Amino acid sequence: MNMAARKLTYACIAFSSILLAGVRPLFAQDEQPPNASKPKPAGTTYPVPLVVGGQQDEDNNNKLLPDTTPLTGIQAPTLGSPGLQHSYWMPGIQWTGSIQSNSYNQTQSSSWLMNNYFVGNVSLLKAWSRSQLAINYSGGGFITTDSNQGNGYYQNLALSQSFQWNRWQLQFLDQFSYLPQSSFGFGGGSGLATPGTGGPLGPVIPGMGNSTVPNQSIYASVGPRYSNASAVQITYLTSPRGSVTLSGSYGLLNFIDPGNVDSNTISGSIGYNYALNRQDTIGAFYRFSAYHYPGQPEAHGDHSFNLAYGRKVTGRMALQLYAGPDFTTSRITATNADSLNYGVNVGANMQYAFRNSGITLNYSHGISGGSGVLTGSSGDQVNSSVTHQLTRIWSGQLNVGYSHNTPIGLAAQTNTQSYNTWTVGGGVSRPLGRNASLGITYTADFTNYGTPTCAGTACIANQTFHYISINFQWHARPLVLP
Fold this sequence. Notes:
The chain is mainly β. Helices cover 4% and strands 53% of the residues. It is built from 1 helix and 22 strands. The protein has an 18-stranded antiparallel beta barrel. A hairpin with a 3-residue loop joins β5 and β6. It is globular, with a radius of gyration of 22 Å.
């Protein structure tokens, strides 16, 4: 592992240690004696959302607070977040044992192997009168029987800090991961893909979109890698129905092993949101993204102009749709000239909840950094999941994902092939008491790169990976923050 990776790993471990040491281990309100002083509020003091297009159903029975993400922002909408009576933090532990059919290095001689992940989790929600901090973090390592891969580390973090001043809302967002393989399909339904303790008490931090988080959907890039996306977002309320949202972000995808393509992405956007009623919102936004590759002269600048529509029903549905024209300028070193490519930018995010089931669907079409294989790619990515309560204690899930990547401007790249990747899985889980859960999952990943050979570190054009995992999670009761 190189020095940069060690620094990032040690920083995450130090961060979690300080977090665990800096709070008082007090039980939540239901564990306080009757004469305890009135607790400090937490979720109920979250700043009033700026856009009213998602605040309907105030008297709903699910006790969820409405989602406050602006339609033209960089976060995907959610069904809402639980209203809590305390600021709190919650530690936990997790073990995941995974049997897989092939090594991460994708060599033909790979055989079945075993990975054991030992992870510490922590979730934190701290609220003040005009701000709120939410953190979900998981960190640890894995022991493997694969002598080529070797043992390694695992880190996953999601962070959101929000401030509210009258008409203004300011947000600082960050998503970081250090994984032994691609994040696309990683962990299946085991919980490794999601940081924090999870469950109904875990803070809801809306994920940033595919245009902000580096793409990793090509399996031809192999080996440990760290990915980070940091963003600042500002929303200003112009009227009771309208608001303006501005955002800026920086993302990176760096690999430990040689032979992969590191990338950096700088993005900025500006959009206008208008609430038609308490459920429906329309908007328009412009986004610019610049893609650079350390040590390589190629670069891309992507411009997109989009119209957007959103609908939110707290606890029932969250929908975001956008589409618009897109053009990309590319710096071509082979001809010492620039190229211009036209296309479309499309995105859809949906969550829908039934009485005993739930559906999630995410789709995007546009430009990305190239997933560590290409110096820029144009492609499609879709992820979907279905959950259902099978019995009183058992629940089931199905997950399907697909990605298609092609180079941006074939004249600008020596690698001109397309990359198709599928991931399919499912599993069952059940609670073990109040604070623990057990799950069993199966995942299959498929690659089809269209040719007998392919470009990429230890790449095999057509291959199937099978994963069978057992996952155990435990978390403490919420501990009150002062």
